[in-house]
TrEMBL record, chain A:
Its cofactor is thiamine diphosphate. Residues 7-172 form the Transketolase-like pyrimidine-binding domain. Coiled coil: none annotated. This is Transketolase. The keyword Transferase applies. PANTHER family: PYRUVATE DEHYDROGENASE E1 COMPONENT, TRANSKETOLASE-LIKE PYRIMIDINE-BINDING DOMAIN-CONTAINING PROTEIN.
Automatic annotation (TrEMBL), chain B:
InterPro entries: THDP-binding, Transketolase_N. Residues 11-260 form the Transketolase N-terminal domain. It comes from the Bacteria. This is Transketolase. Belongs to the transketolase family. Signal peptide: none annotated. SUPFAM superfamilies: Thiamin diphosphate-binding fold (THDP-binding) (SSF52518). Keywords: Thiamine pyrophosphate. The lineage of its organism: Bacteria, Bacillati, Saganbacteria.
């Protein structure tokens, strides 16, 4: 196996944003006193007139972004996932989504891999509470390469978008020439025995699990569902029909996120045995990201177990 | 400002008030009390102060008006209709299914609405965003934001007020429709705003207090705000909930979120037909 390269999706965001700033004078950026962590600081340094540090005031930041967007700006608003989704949910719903504002809420420090900061800072519910809002597009990039392409796509797409990024360095799984298409899942590995749908940093783990399963004679199809909304229903249904079993893998609660979204599609179109791998309706805790992933069952081993159990249920 | 011009604006305010009564009665629903208290403010904005063109609602040079107290939708719809954004006959579709005249204002439904509101506290932040965009674009439009006084209990109002003060947004004027009541009672009983002027001042705002039913005082306050450089201005406009209709003024809590009965409607319209308190 070749050496795995690591990079943080938030670093890719900072880089892409600075590049966008050079290309498009309409791009403005807002942050809520976390610009060093969310990586918007680089944009702020290059374009101080178009960078608004709103202080510790996420609700104000989101509605202000909507006001800027109402005057033709492409507004990127960043903070940690727990604040951008939860603290400002009503502002996202009314000021941004209801008005179809051209606001991109790009959050970092999603999920338990936020690590040492503990449960208060680990957003494990954000995909669920963002995807239920009408007009909202929700994207969870799988690595730094995809993140850069997602940020570019976000600037070209007119309307509200929620983009979920992570704090630690995670494996790069996409080639530089990978073409990102909003709303289109990517088959990373074909297989016939089951389908593993994943998003975000867990896609790399799902690929590891599939490699392990192959050694046990099980051919798992691995699909990167980077866009949680609008969901690639056709791809989900086609793959599930072919393989007859599904495992979803996300670094998020098993309630309402990727697993919930896939389950909704399957139950209405082709119900097949399914297992959701994710946080089992619990809060996280302080710890190193790798330790937390093991403790909360977000490992290749757990995915392999889920795959074997779901295959047994195939009729 | 001549006496004739003031009289003309008073007549418009009276007309807008009649629309508020008629449309909320037709809908048997809506918020007439806080619409009537804001009628003179809205009149001065749409028929005197705002640079706008009803034939071109998207004009990039237009002044922006954000009505943060989105429940006062009827008074804004009345002004937009009288200004020529849409025919006044549509006013009676207020709150009906399929109508552009939503219960709380929706910018995607109706031309002339700059921001959707209804969940209190969000409008001033959006107005700040518009003011910042104007500054970035070197566009000299002004931004106005109308807040309810009860609304000022929302924390986000003060987050936004801190932003406007910090960024010295002198192209922004906030107006508080200070009618002293919220749904559940008197503001001073439920959660006082006092010292209200000092609060705004301490957030680095220029504060003007005026009679919110005096056309002349409102015009002077808005002119004063335009001339104020280096800080945003808030006009705390003292108003009366239900202003213009005797039985609504006497029972402000009964008409916060409920319209008059059909019999009361007749009396209200009759009272409003007579223009009172003309300043000369």
């Amino acid at each position: 196996m070749s050496e795995v390269k690591l990079a943080a999706t938030r670093d890719a965001y900072g880089k892409a944003l600075a590049q966008l700033g050079k290309e498009n004078p309409n791009v403005v950026v807002l942050d809520a006193d976390l610009s060093a962590s969310t990586k918007t600081a680089e944009f702020g340094k290059l374009f101080p007139d178009r960078f608004f540090n709103m202080g510790v005031a996420e609700q104000d930041m989101i509605s202000t972004a909507a006001g800027l967007a109402a005057c033709g700006k492409i507004a990127f608003a960043s903070t940690f996932a727990v604040f951008g989704s939860g603290r400002a949910w009503d502002q996202v719903r009314l000021s941004v989504a209801y008005t179809r504002a051209n606001v991109k809420i790009v959050v970092t420090h999603a999920g338990i891999v936020t690590g040492e900061d503990g449960a208060s800072h680990q957003a494990n519910e954000d995909i669920a509470i963002m995807r239920v809002i009408p007009n909202m597009t929700v994207v969870v990039p799988s690595d730094s390469v995809e993140t850069e392409k997602v940020i570019r796509a976000a600037a070209e797409f007119h309307g509200p978008m929620y983009i979920r990024l992570s704090r630690p360095k995670t494996p790069i799984i996409n080639a530089e020439d990978y073409k990102f298409q909003l709303g289109r899942g990517v088959v990373l590995r074909p297989g016939k025995d089951l389908t593993i749908f994943s998003c975000g940093i867990m896609v790399a783990t799902a690929l590891d699990a599939a490699a392990d399963l192959a050694g046990k004679g099980i051919e798992a199809e691995v699909i990167n569902l980077h866009t949680i909304k609008p969901l690639d229903k056709k791809l989900i249904v086609d793959s599930a029909k072919r393989t007859g079993a599904v495992v979803t893998v996300e670094e998020h609660s098993i309630l309402g996120g990727l697993g919930g979204a896939v389950a909704e599609v399957l139950v209405e179109n082709c119900a097949v045995p399914m297992v959701r791998v994710g946080l089992k309706d619990v809060f996280g805790e302080s710890g190193k990201p790798d330790e937390l992933l093991v403790k909360y069952g977000l490992t290749a081993e757990e995915i392999v177990k889920a795959a074997r159990s779901v295959i047994k249920r195939k009729s | 400002m001549s006496g004739d011009e003031i009289k003309k604006l008073q007549e418009i305010a009276s007309k807008l008030r009649q629309h508020v009564i008629a449309m909320t009665c037709a809908a048997a629903s809506g918020h007439p009390g806080g619409s009537l208290s804001a009628a003179d403010i809205i009149t001065v904005l749409y028929f005197h102060a705002l640079r706008h063109n009803p034939k071109d609602p998207g004009w990039t040079e237009r002044d922006r008006f954000v009505m943060s107290k989105g429940h006062a939708a009827p008074i804004l719809y009345s002004a937009l209709a009288e200004a020529g954004y849409f025919p006044a006959k549509y006013l009676k579709t207020l709150r009906q299914i399929g109508s552009s005249l939503q219960g709380h204002i929706d910018m995607l439904s109706l031309p002339g609405i700059e921001m959707s509101t209804g969940s209190l506290g969000q409008g001033l932040s959006a107005a700040n965003g518009m003011a910042l965009a104007g500054r970035l674009d070197k566009n000299d439009y002004r931004v106005y934001c109308l807040l309810g006084d009860g609304e000022c209990q929302e924390g986000q109002v003060w987050e936004a007020a801190m932003t406007s003060g910090h960024r010295k947004l002198d192209n922004l004027t906030a107006i508080v429709d200070h009618n002293k009541y919220q749904i559940d009672g008197k503001i001073e009983d439920i959660k006082t705003l006092a010292p209200f002027e000092d609060k705004w001042r301490s957030f680095n705002w220029h504060v003007i207090r005026c009679d919110g039913h005096s056309i002349k005082a409102l015009i002077e306050a808005i002119d004063n705000a335009k001339k104020t450089k280096g800080k945003p201005t808030v006009i705390i406009a003292d108003t009366i909930k239900g202003k213009g209709v005797s039985f609504m003024e006497a029972a402000p809590l009964s008409f916060h979120g409920s319209p008059p009965t059909p019999e009361q409607e007749k009396q209200a319209l009759c009272e409003l037909c007579k223009i009172k308190d003309i300043e000369l």
